[in-house]
Amino acid sequence: MSKEIKTIAVLTSGGDAPGMNAAIRAVVRKGISNGVNVKGIKRGYLGLLNEEIVDMEAKDVSDIIQTGGTILGTARCLEMKEPDVQAHAADICRKHNIDGLVVIGGDGSYRGAQALARNGINTIGLPGTIDLDIACTEYTIGFDTAINTAMEAIDKVRDTSSSHERCSIIEVMGRNAGYIALWTGVANGAEDILLPEKYDYNEQELINNIVASRKRGKTHHIIVNAEGIGHSTSMAKRIEAATGIETRATILGYLQRGGNPTCKDRFYASIMGAYAADILCQGKSNRVVAYKHGEFVDYDIEEALNMTKGIDEYQFEICKKLSR
Ligand code: ADP
Ligand code: F6P
Questions:
Q1: Which of 86, 142, 196, 321 is the one with CA 20 to 30 A from 121?
Q2: Tell me: the pLDDT tens digits for 165-190?
Q3: Cβ < 6 Å from ligand 2: which residues?
Q4: In this structure, is residue 320 part of a structural domain?
Q5: Domain span at residue 302?
Q6: Do the Cβ atoms of 86 and 119 come closer than 8 Å?
């Protein structure tokens, strides 16, 4: 029989993402409405190990649904990978009467949640990352805001690129995953998109594309380059030298991680946060909440971590076709 849940907690872990606050708010308020106490853990697993644990009331999450970042703070805490540290973290939860924990983060954070579950603390993961690189879900908290921020920035670069008849390489976030580059590449009508999953480092092909599109009368040439490939500045220099076309690099960087969440990120994060509080209060553990085939669902963490997904070939190819 599952233990009675009297107190739940929430933490954010890994890179911050717009919409995490909406999720925290939903966990707190749905937890309270379910009749449990709710605590907030600051700075992810690091804060848990340092016992930075505070009581959360409904008013503590007022006025945050519209803000980026995370009011709880986040951190990377490599010690959490050690089995004795994981056992100690579970003891700290017990010391603070925490029966269940919602962990908002990516795959790495899920592993920490899984370890806590193995050590007797009920855990539920929520997908929080701008990168969309969690295989079990078609939606991650923050991705929508990040792509809209990047899309608007790329529109602006395109204006000046066209006016000066330049080639522009715009580097977007995504160290291991190219979803931000794919989506903005299609949405911004980029001539080329370079994804960590796909790029073959054939710069000659890129150069040929730029020369061909200039011959067809294009005044700009937008290359959306994912962070995982990087080196945009040196790439721009090489392209300019090879084509004679002025080429500039713009690295969008952390501005993609901040800012007010879009309506979609607020909505999905709110539903997922409430869902997590509900299943935690029902005594479920070692699960992650996901959005799949138009529904909010939950999976066993191990099952979720073993799922795979990749860049859709048709979407990748169509991007190039539509801009030629
Ligand atoms: P994300 O959650 O976005 O994937 P990270 O991979 O940086 O981000 O992981 C966030 C945190 O999750 C790490 O700093 C660490 O505290 C915890 N974590 C990562 N991997 C593991 C693991 N294998 N076991 C336990 N905890 C982990
Ligand atoms: O949040 C995801 C992400 O933006 C990745 O695209 C990137 O590789 C990583 O975070 C960088 O984060 P940090 O510099 O904070 O380690």
A1: 142
A2: 999 999 999 999 999 999 999 999 99
A3: 15, 129-131, 173-175, 227, 257
A4: no
A5: 7-142+261-306
A6: yes
Minimal-distance CA residue to ligand 1 atom 1: 106
Task: Name the nearest CA neighbour of 18 among 142, 186, 113.
Answer: 142
Q: 271 and 229 in one domain?
A: no
CB 101 within 8 A of CB 93: yes
Q: State the ligand closest to the CA atom of 12.
A: 1
Calculate the average pLDDT of the chain.
96
Determine, yes or no, domain membership for 109.
yes
Residue whose Cα lies nearest atom 15 of ligand 1: it is: 77
State if pTM tops 0.70: yes
Task: Using the 3D structure, point to which of 257, 273, 289 is the last residue of a domain.
Answer: 257
Confidence band for 1, pLDDT divided at 50, 70 and 90: very low
Residue 4: pLDDT band by 50, 70, 90 thresholds? Answer: confident
Q: What residues contact 86, with CB distance under 8 A and at least 6 apart?
A: 80, 112, 115, 116, 118, 119
CATH number of the CATH domain containing 157: 3.40.50.460
Q: Evaluate the CA torsion angle 199, 204, 207, 208 in order and state its sign.
A: negative
Q: Is 312 part of the annotated catalytic residue set?
A: no
| Ligand 2 atom 10 nearest Cα | 15
